[in-house]
Amino acid sequence: MTVVVKVGGARAVEPARTLADVASLVADGEDVVLTHGGSTAVDETLEALGEEPTYVETPAGVVGRFTDERTMDVFKMVMPGKLNTDLVEHLQNEGVDAVGLSGVDGKLLEGSRKSAVRVEEDGRKKIKRGDHSGRIESVNAELLETLLAAGYTPVVSVPVLGRETDGGYTAVNADADRAAAAIAGALGADLVVLTDVSGIYEDPEDGSTRIESASTPGEFASLREAAEGFMTRKVMAAEEALEGGAASVVVATADAETPVTSALAGDGTTITPGVLGAGADDGTGVGG
Fold first, then answer.
1. pTM of the model as a whole
2. pLDDT below 70 — which residues of the chain?
3. Pairwise CA distance, residues 191 & 165, whole Å
4. Do the strands 169-172 and 160-163 form a parallel or antiparallel pair, or are they unpaired?
5. Which CATH number applies to 2-276?
């Protein structure tokens, strides 16, 4: 079974233990695809350049980044550049033959570009134009499978390849959790989403209220209701991963001694395909 690991890009998430655990799994013969975020590094780079990151709220209440052309340039520099290279370098030092990829490489992650987004400002719904983001609609699973079969460990980041209305392509931003979900679905893999908390909590302020698992539609509805802030996107990503064919999703902490191994053993919030209801898990949602 392949494992897709997504390590968060928040300042509080230190990847060293995750990378050591990935190296251990690979040494034991497991196929691992590592994906990563980097929102904090992008924000810090923008600020160092004298620019302010822009975040918007959708009418549905989901907060996300507005990626204009300048921000997209910074994404290209930071995500597949410094961050991805640093992770590949670390894995090489752990004895892992890692290969860094962005979603643009080999049409790994492809979808349609969204040049405008619906936002809510001061209680009013508006259209904000000039966005460079997209929704992932296909994954080149064959590319990943070829690398894994040859003994390489892919390390994947956004941007992704966005189709323009004229038939051309533009590199665009996409949510890293949902990119990991698309990859896990395409590979039929277990998805481990590592972050700075130990799972999804009934009370977001109380770690002792962690929801251990969700395996039915009703349990997943409760999970979705409990999720707030950044966790909302992780729950959305979990649903998309399972709809696409992923075997399971675990949301867990990156601060455990062996984060990936512990998450797969149940130390986190585990979500299984039963949450989709009968007949929903047909593995045909997102694929290559």
1. 0.91
2. 12, 278-288
3. 32
4. antiparallel
5. 3.40.1160.10
